[in-house]
Amino acid sequence: MTKTSKQHTFGPLIVDVAVPVGSYYLFKDAIGMSTFAALAWSSAVPAGRTVWSVVRERTVNGLAALILVVNAVSLLLGLVSGDPRLMLAKDSGVSSIIGVGILVSVALGRPMMTAGFKPFLVRGDSAREAAWRRLADGTAEGSAAFRRAERVFSVVWGVVLLAECAARVVGAYTLPVDTMVWLGSVILAGSMALAFVVSRAVAAEPMARLLVAEVKVAEAAVKAEVAVAA
Fold first, then answer.
1. Which of 91, 113, 103 is nearest to 169 (CA)?
2. How far apart are the first and last CA of the chain?
3. How many C-beta atoms lie closer than 10 Å to residue 48's C-beta?
4. Residue from 27, 66, 30 nearest 47 by CA
5. What is the pLDDT of residue 215?
6. What is the pTM of this model?
7. Angle at which helices 114-122 and 126-137 pack, to 10 degrees?
């Protein structure tokens, strides 16, 4: 992974996870804000980043908009109830909505996660892109296994996100708020790592092998045609 790709991958994670956690303890312990106020202000940076991303790219990113709406609604609910635990539980709402959305997309035959991991398998190669189309369209020998693995990839992420949501909601209402502020981030990071490892093993790697095999089949067919023509 290049330095630039690492920045794109981990930069948003640092802003959305490390900054809110650090700023929460800064506002609460160093400045002396209330728990609710510290939670509210610690959400300002990632919320601002989401808005700036939408403005800068001049397009409405569905996921970014979803997260922003969930944050805004949960902040309003928190203001009404004054409950810091609700502020913590609302973070899991994003995971649950996304998780359900992913599983629904699989049921509809359009796995949502495909757009995210396809570039890593195709790698900008035209032969791989063509092989992907044949496998996805059902015109290649390994199409059935390929499309099954494609669905499994999204299912893994959907299930993990729902499990992460449940764990954080339980923690928000059973553990001390100060503990859950950092533990929630640990659960989120651990869930993402688990989903990545499992989805790669059971879906991405098999798809990569099928993709390479289909490229070789296409190359062999071209060579055969050239030989016949000669």
1. 91
2. 43
3. 11
4. 66
5. 93
6. 0.69
7. 140
